[in-house]
Design brief:
Rossmann fold; binds alpha-ribazole-5'-phosphate; binds nicotinic acid; 2 domains; 13 helices; transferase; Nicotinate-nucleotide--dimethylbenzimidazole phosphoribosyltransferase; nicotinate-nucleotide-dimethylbenzimidazole phosphoribosyltransferase activity; 49% helix; glycosyltransferase; 332 residues; alpha/beta
Length: 332
């Protein structure tokens, strides 16, 4: 088993056993995702999936839907947080529009307009999308993972952009962990007491409808976002293709729950970068059975937390690959 082999190798290195603390757990997880004691962390790519959400009309947050397009523009100009962090960590950046209301931006190497629709329906009033549209958005993610594998990418960081998507993620997280809906609702990109109350009400209403739906795919589609469905498809495909994937925050976690609900092996090569500030993130990670490696009070999204873990992933790979064993040093 690769897990045992990695543990044995780390214990045999010229250092006190366990002295690299949680870096050793990260090294073991990285080795597991690639099935080798010589894992590679480059080339790597951040894929940000974008989508818009009809539920914004309920006043569930502070920001208008137009901010999705504005942030996409910034990403393509290399001036968003994720673009800056991607450059800083030597990571390719790709923006995939799965269902935003943005204008079609000019063709660029780091941009794919693979839209299924221009925003979801308002999930507080009716199903967010049809099952056919869910499947199409899932396929957008599959295509992104296949493209990454064909390009020789070894590590895929996964993130999102979509105003309103913490409401959809809260719905999916409550549905798929069987939690009380209110426990998954947090401030997202900012809230007032009033907007938070509207968000709780929207999530509770949508959950009542979804829980009455006997078919899980229908229930999920009714709560989902195009970028979330695409992330789920990407996660499932990355697992099949043996690509190490690094998951970002609460919304990515909700997508991972969707992926696992429909494909049980979807988290085979997943690493959870961090535990963020959104209150639903910790219970989602617990339900996924994934250990988060950073606890930096992040609440941005855009794949930012995943990018922050990458230097530590490099460090974990370097330790496995480059450190001599004690036996080599002592000749024993
Ligand atoms: C300027 C800005 C940049 C962002 N980048 C990511 N998000 C994050 O906030 C959104 C989710 O929060 P909510 O559900 O409250 O809308 C998502 O787009 C997420 O990626 C941002 C939000 C804003 C406002
Ligand atoms: O955890 C996240 O990814 C997150 C939290 C708040 C807002 N946007 C994203």
């Amino acid at each position: 088993m690769i897990t045992d082999a990695a543990r044995q190798r780390l214990d045999a290195l010229a250092k006190p056993q366990g002295s690299l603390g949680r870096l050793e757990r990260l090294a073991i997880r990285l080795a597991e995702t690639q099935g080798t004691l010589a894992p590679e962390t480059r080339p790597r790519r951040l894929v940000v999936f974008a989508g818009d959400h009809g539920v914004v009309a309920e006043g569930v947050g502070l920001w208008p839907a137009e901010v999705t397009a504005a942030m996409m523009r910034l990403m393509l100009d290399g001036r968003s947080t994720c673009a800056a962090l991607a450059r800083a960590s030597g990571t390719e950046f790709l923006l995939i529009d799965a269902g935003s209301k943005a204008p079609c931006f000019p063709p660029a190497p780091g941009y794919r307009d693979w839209r299924i629709a221009h925003g979801t329906a308002n999930l507080a009033r009716k199903p967010a999308m049809t099952v056919a549209d869910f499947d199409a958005a899932w396929s957008v993610g599959t295509r992104a993972a296949e493209e990454a594998a064909a390009d020789g990418i070894r590590v895929l960081a996964i993130g999102e952009m979509g105003i309103g998507n913490t409401t959809a993620a809260a719905c999916l997280a409550a549905l798929l962990t069987n939690a009380e809906p209110a426990t998954m609702v947090g401030p997202g990109a900012g809230a007032t007491p009033e907007s938070l109350a509207r968000k709780r009400a929207a999530v509770a209403t949508a959950l009542t409808r979804a829980r009455a739906e006997p078919d899980p795919r229908h229930a999920i589609a009714g709560l989902c976002g195009y970028e979330i469905a695409a992330m789920a498809g990407c996660i499932a495909a990355a697992a099949r293709l043996g690509l190490t994937m690094v998951l970002d925050g609460f919304i990515t976690g909700a997508a991972a729950l969707v992926a696992r609900a429909l494909e049980p092996d979807a988290l085979r090569t997943a690493i959870a970068a961090h535990r963020g500030e959104e209150p639903g993130h910790a219970p989602v990670l617990a339900a996924l059975g994934l250990e988060p490696f950073l606890d930096w009070q992040l609440r941005l999204g855009e794949g930012s937390g995943a990018l922050l873990l990458l230097p530590l992933l490099d460090a974990a790979a370097a330790v496995l690959r480059d450190v001599a064993t004690l036996a080599e040093v002592t000749g024993g």
